[in-house]
Design a protein that fits this description.
The protein has about 110 residues and is α/β, with parallel strands linked by helices.
């Protein structure tokens, strides 16, 4: 289960951050949630992992420094995200930024990286 694997990765990361005494963490959406078949599935996956992060933050006292949208590693962005000539890819990128901004705000992130 890709979402269970993402949650396990969060468990390990927060355990390591706690052992190191790190006060903040950061994330790219694509690094913390499994890639879905659709934008809606990506959004659901991000929302679930962000809710899981909230539990981790509450348990550890760690805070989110920044969140950001990864608009470069997926093949759909080979011609750019915000600069893509395909309107569907541009819309996917813009909507991804919006969901990542909302996730960062929900977690009380200090910053958002564009």
């Amino acid at each position: 289960d890709p979402l269970a694997a993402a949650m396990l990765m969060a468990d390990v990361a927060f355990e390591m951050f706690t052992a190191l005494g790190v006060p903040y963490y950061c994330f790219h959406d694509a690094d913390v949630r499994p890639e879905g078949e659709t934008f809606a599935e990506n959004t659901r996956n991000l929302e679930e992992i962000v809710d899981y992060f909230a539990e981790k933050q509450s348990a550890t006292g760690m805070r989110l420094l920044w969140g950001t949208a990864n608009l470069f590693s997926h093949r759909r962005y080979m011609s750019g995200g915000a600069t893509n000539p395909d309107p569907e890819v541009f819309a996917f990128a813009a909507a991804t930024v919006k969901t990542c901004m909302a996730a960062t705000q929900k977690q009380g992130g200090a910053h958002f990286v564009l």
